[in-house]
Amino acid sequence: MNIMFFLFSLASTLFRTPISTLSRSCLSSQHYFRLFSMAAKNPHHHLEENGGATTVMAADILNRHNSSSCKKRKLFDIDVRSEFSHHDPAVARINNGSFGSCPSSVIEAQQRYQLRFLEQPDDFYFNHLKPSILRSREAIKTLINADHVDEISIVDNATTAAAIVLQQVKWSFFESKFNPGDTAVMLHYAYGAVKKSVEAYVTRAGGQVIEVKMPFPVASNHEIITAFRNALEVGKSNNRKVRLAIIDHITSMPSVVIPVKELVKMCREEGVDRIFVDAAHAIGSIRVDVKEIGADFYTSNLHKWLFCPPSIAFLHCRTPELSNLHHPVVSHEYGNGLAIESSWIGTRDYSAQLVVPEALEFVNRFEGGIDGIMKWNHQKVIEMADMLAKSWGTNLGTPPDMCSSMAMVGLPACLEIMSDSDGLKLRSHLREFFKVEVPIYYRQPKVGEVNPVTGYARISHQIYNIVDDYYRLRDAINNLVNSGFTCKVFHD
Ligand SMILES: Cc1ncc(COP(=O)(O)O)c(C=O)c1O
Ligand SMILES: *[C@@H]1O[C@H](CO)[C@@H](O)[C@H](O)[C@H]1NC(C)=O
Ligand SMILES: *[C@@H]1O[C@H](CO)[C@@H](O)[C@H](O)[C@H]1NC(C)=O
Ligand SMILES: CC(=O)N[C@H]1CO[C@H](CO)[C@@H](O)[C@@H]1O
């Protein structure tokens, strides 16, 4: 972005903000209590600085609790806005779960890496690329409590990580380690792209797939654990073996936090060969401890909730020396272990993979770092979901402890959402006429259900969201309800 434009938008935010908004934000946006040491620091750090932990200044801590330091907190507000000033200000996109977000300090760091490469590609390749990727892997290792950096590979996205694991399963069928008809168990709500990958690699290699029918709305972990146990029983029937379990940590649609630790334990007890946790949404939105979870493979994107640019994901492998995993695109490093294979798959832009330390530096400017952000987003998304459900006379799709930084809120039954297509069209309608971006889940009603809630909005909360974003959604829906709108209008 043009630097003048950047400065201009900063200044306009600074001067055009009405006084009433200023005082309101002091009262209502308590979240800026949580942001500190931002204004005092120069966000334009350099590559040479190795991204050590940001030190917290005593004055900032004091100011957090100082109710008369309104002006200072307001600066924090502006700081957050300037970090995200490239976002379209006209849209209340409470859909940060889908594509994530990247602050400008991290984008700038990424651009410095890109320039470094273009300035002197050979120098970058021979002297900087590998150590920089290693630095990102080290940071991820610490973040997810892995034992050794060899367990961490960086790949483009969760879909690629799934392909890596599933191709290995495919080879086990081809090399007769697995028998035709052996099974893979996965949730019915597994991510669409991952389901297609299972079809492409597992089904086609002779495996059978058992889908776990999960209830939604869901009342407790217990319901999921029971459904999973039943699916494992089916998977083992007729002398078959369950070779693979694919477990989402947070399902995408509907969004539900799955009790992975319990399910992994159950799989181990039942002798499941390999356990893959698809945690595309997890890092930065819920606590991740790969040792505690104990799966064989665990992947998460860093571009969804950890403020990295698109796209970067890690794949954690518990026993890298035994697992024989390979990057789906074979290049020079084939056979040198997945982490090394993945770190050079040819000439391309690796910059998104290099800025993990800068993204962590960004989150460390907040009270409590990433844990503080997770706690804050979770608390706020529940608060916003409750507010919406109360206004619409509906309920949440899950109890709060099964929400991450996303929550499912029932939409009024009178909207008559009758299909996936209705949900998609209502979403477009909200975008077009109300400038709200929110994904909508369609749930098939049970037979005989009276006035069923068939639509759920998946709302996200990220640090820059304000309550007005959710009021916009609330009012848009109430407006539709009051005007007698139903999804039938989409059918003509
Ligand atoms: C559960 C789950 N798995 C996989 C993915 C795919 O992630 P990507 O598009 O980054 O490969 C997503 C993305 O939303 C997801 O929610
Ligand atoms: C609180 O903020 C005011 C105004 O910024 C300042 O004068 C005062 O010293 C602060 N008090 C503490 C305890 O930091
Ligand atoms: C995921 O990564 C692969 C390469 O590893 C790339 O081809 C694909 O476009 C990426 N998909 C998404 C959704 O980013
Ligand atoms: C990437 C994305 O959708 N970001 C949006 C998250 O929500 C805020 C507040 O509504 C928007 O300003 C961002 O554009």
Automatic annotation (TrEMBL):
Domain of life (superkingdom): Eukaryota
Protein name: Uncharacterized protein
